[in-house]
Amino acid sequence: MSGWKNYSLNKSFKKITFCYKLDLLLFMVTRMHLTLQQLKLFEAVSRLGSYTRAAEELFLTQPAVSIQVKRLEDQTGLPLFEKVGKKIFPTAAGKAMYAASLDILNRVDDLKKSIEDLKGTVKGPLQLSVVTTAKYFLPKLLGVFLQRYPDVEPKLKFTNRARVIERLMNNDDDFVVMGQIPKDDNLEAHPFLTNILGVIAPADHPLANKKEITIEELAQERFLIREAGSGTRYVFEKLLKEHEIEIEPYMELGSSEALKQAIMAGLGIAVLSLHSVQLELEVNKLTVLDVQGFPMKRRWYAVHLKGRSLSLVARTFMDFILKEGHSVLGEEYD
Ligand code: PGA
């Protein structure tokens, strides 16, 4: 009974919140002179919780962002953020404004896409989230694509696997690019390139010339690993589990780039995508150890929620990477 009461209370509260949001939205549209640019700035400040980071993301100065948010506050007649210590937090009006801004900005993006789709032109926004390791090849693919379709407006977010999955499930992007897809029947995944993972060591490592190193032998080495949430780390941990081996990593680092530098400095060895160490292998700074079960051949995937209708821009880009990815990048991706 009390569960039911809570449910109906909750429902009424949601209704009130919804009405309040709707009122605010109508009020904004009819009475205020808001610009989309102001909403964009406000959305970035709220999401990032910082004027400075929002300014960096939008390539603006921090005062330019503060002035626009101040103008929004003047229009609303209410403060949108409050400062506690050094941090800023949205007020109740700020929270409602954030929800409304997301609504409006998404609708405008959808509108842009539908108009371009109707015209049949490959033009307009392309929003992608990409795991950090894909930064070694995706910009190149995008560069070639943009030469062909210069009116596409790409927005790329490079972040680790955990964050990419979060965005995927929220349907935040046209599609995402990742290596290790979560098990979920609601996902549609298109494989396109090969991702080869190897055990990377400094070129003069004592095991550099040894053949068929076992995982057990390897576990005696000083291991460097990526941060929690990384796809590369996920694969490595799965492998150790399969071999029932536990290792105490020597150091945890937040990017493949940092791992690479640490390996070259002689701090340890690590499992990395060969895409990320191509140059260092060529100039003999690093080497790939001959470990049993390695190199591991995996795939890159373009993934989105099943049933998501892709814009013409997104469909064209996906087609491009699926069909032409290999020829653009060369045989190491076959
Ligand atoms: P990561 O992901 O960049 O988060 O390690 C790589 C992958 O998904 O294979």
Summarize, please:
By secondary structure, this protein is α/β, with parallel strands linked by helices. The chain contains twelve helices and eleven strands.
**Fourth-tier CATH superfamily name of the largest domain:** Winged helix-like DNA-binding domain superfamily/Winged helix DNA-binding domain
| CATH-defined fold name of the largest domain | Arc Repressor Mutant, subunit A
Q: How many domains would you count in the coordinates? A: 3
Our count of helices gives: 12
**Overall mean pLDDT:** 87
- In total, how many beta strands? 11
Question: Per CATH, which architecture of the largest domain?
Answer: Orthogonal Bundle
Tell me what portion of residues adopts beta-strand conformation: 15-25%
CATH class value of the largest domain = Mainly Alpha
Largest sheet: 7 strands, mixed
Description:
The structure is a single chain. The protein folds into 3 domains: 2-108, Orthogonal Bundle (Arc Repressor Mutant, subunit A), CATH 1.10.10; 122-192 and 300-333, D-Maltodextrin-Binding Protein, domain 2 (3-Layer(aba) Sandwich); 194-298, D-Maltodextrin-Binding Protein, domain 2 (3-Layer(aba) Sandwich), CATH 3.40.190. The longest helix is centred in the first third of the chain and has 30 residues, at 2-31. 29% of the residues are buried. Strands 3, 4, 5, 6, 9, 10 and 11 form a 7-stranded mixed beta sheet that branches. Strands 1-2 form a two-stranded antiparallel ribbon. It has a two-stranded parallel sheet with strand order 7-8. The chain is built from 12 helices and 11 strands. A hairpin with a 2-residue loop joins strand 1 and strand 2. The chain is α/β, with parallel strands linked by helices and 334 residues long. The radius of gyration is 24 Å and the shape is globular. The chain binds 2-phosphoglycolic acid.
